[in-house]
Amino acid sequence: MRRTTRYPVKEKNSLAQVYRTVPFFKVIKNFVFIQIARYCPFLSLKNWIFRTFLRMKVGKDSAVALMVMVDIMFPEKISIGRNTVIGYNTTILAHEYLVDEYRLGEVKIGSRVMIGANTTILPGIEIGDGATVAAGSVVIKDVPAGCFVGGNPAKLIYTKEQMEERMKLH
């Protein structure tokens, strides 16, 4: 179950009213620093940008790959645990604008998580410690700790216990 707060709008769709929900200059500032971070080849500098200018929580030794797109309007709602890998071109959203409402939700990515390339994570999601998300997945609900999920929408492939058993075999 995604944990989002819903905000109804009247008249125009919510995206047409975007600057009623988030300040224009905040979006411009975030856009600039997100673009710098997307192309930055230095992981420690990238994490510093995330923490300092975007107010994200990023744990020690986490690696956010090239071209990862974090939420441009509410990056402060994203937290990443320690020693986590987020693959190339992943998108992490903390908002969604719909016709009659917009929704905001924190995204919590645990420690020692592996997120494959080209994954999309929707607002209000928690990914537990030690979980693995297959490349190209769309995460629409929470991922329990230690599990392996994949697909569109992401579905459970292996439980934590099955993953531990597989690791013993290798």
Automatic annotation (TrEMBL):
Top-level lineage group: Bacteria
| Gene3D superfamilies associated with the record | Hexapeptide repeat proteins
**PROSITE patterns on file:** HEXAPEP_TRANSFERASES
Recorded hits in SUPFAM superfamilies, A to Z, give:
Trimeric LpxA-like enzymes
User: Which residue windows are transmembrane per the record?
Assistant: none
One Pfam family this chain carries? Hexapep
Q: Would the keyword Zinc turn up in this protein's UniProt record?
A: no
Query: Mind listing the UniProt keywords for this protein, alphabetically?
Result: Repeat, Transferase
Protein known as: Acetyltransferase-like isoleucine patch superfamily enzyme
Organism, by scientific name, is Caldalkalibacillus horti
